[in-house]
């Protein structure tokens, strides 16, 4: 009984945080400027051309990138650099992206007295579903650690708390300009169709699924449990670790579990000794 009440408290905290951030207009609603006009149609068409159903299970090797680096700060033992580079994707796909997505940015924090071949590199992406995508598409075995992540953006925007932070009316009005009037439910179905492109269960299984560790929250108001389990079932050999909490409280209370998962995932890879 106490556990159930505590879980409800975590769930309520997620809703309170969501209401504070989104309903008070501290942050603008998602997709408040509509669907993107012809660029959305171009994006959908280009993705179908580049990733047809019959080759969905192939790996897509990343392009070589050469960021322009600048040092942000450094101490006697570490250095933080920021890099900027052009988004590495097919020219057709690049033309479908908004201006904000044409350039990518990266921060690189490294110790000064460890040789690169003797240290692991942990890449932190802005969202667990993106980590899952990279882990699926990378051509070599890597540790993949999606934290508090859905299997698809459909879940985040159409089922979790973010559905209350989405500009459904603006999306409906934008569609009404292009075609006949639609109900809000039809607009949501349209959104589900668009965001289904992010469904990671359609992606290849990572090269080393044993090095995949999901960390999920028991009472997450943003990401339902079924979404986490769907991705685990799609990647046999992967592990799910549950922390007691909601989406917000888990970030505050369970950083140790996230760090432990990173270390354990890296330890499940086959390391090669650096040459002397």
UniProtKB/TrEMBL annotation:
InterPro entries: AB_hydrolase_fold, ABHD18. This is Uncharacterized protein. It comes from Escallonia herrerae. The lineage of its organism: Eukaryota, Viridiplantae, Streptophyta, Embryophyta, Tracheophyta.
């Amino acid at each position: 009984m106490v556990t159930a009440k505590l879980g409800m408290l975590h769930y309520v905290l997620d809703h309170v945080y969501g209401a504070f951030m989104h309903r008070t207009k501290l942050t603008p609603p998602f997709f408040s400027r509509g669907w993107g006009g012809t660029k959305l149609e171009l994006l959908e068409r280009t993705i179908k051309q580049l990733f047809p159903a019959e080759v969905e299970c192939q790996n897509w090797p990343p392009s070589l990138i050469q960021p322009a680096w600048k040092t942000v700060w450094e101490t006697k033992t570490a250095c933080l650099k920021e890099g900027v580079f052009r988004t590495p994707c097919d020219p057709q796909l690049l033309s479908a992206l908004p201006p904000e997505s044409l350039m990518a940015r990266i921060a690189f924090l490294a110790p000064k007295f460890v040789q690169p071949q003797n240290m692991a590199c942990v890449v932190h992406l802005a969202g667990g579903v993106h980590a899952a995508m990279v882990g699926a598409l990378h051509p070599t075995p890597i540790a993949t650690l999606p934290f508090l992540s859905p299997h698809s953006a459909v879940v985040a925007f159409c089922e979790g708390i973010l559905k209350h932070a989405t500009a459904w009316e603006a999306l409906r009005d934008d569609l009404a300009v292009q075609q006949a009037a639609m109900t809000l439910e039809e607009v949501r179905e349209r959104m589900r169709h668009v965001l289904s492109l992010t469904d990671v269960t359609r992606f290849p299984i990572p090269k080393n699924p044993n090095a995949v560790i999901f960390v999920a929250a028991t009472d997450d108001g943003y990401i339902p449990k079924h979404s986490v389990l769907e991705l685990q079932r799609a990647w046999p050999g992967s592990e799910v670790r549950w922390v007691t909490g909601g989406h917000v409280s888990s970030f505050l209370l369970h950083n140790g579990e996230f760090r432990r998962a990173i270390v354990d995932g890296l330890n499940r890879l086959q390391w090669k000794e650096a040459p002397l």
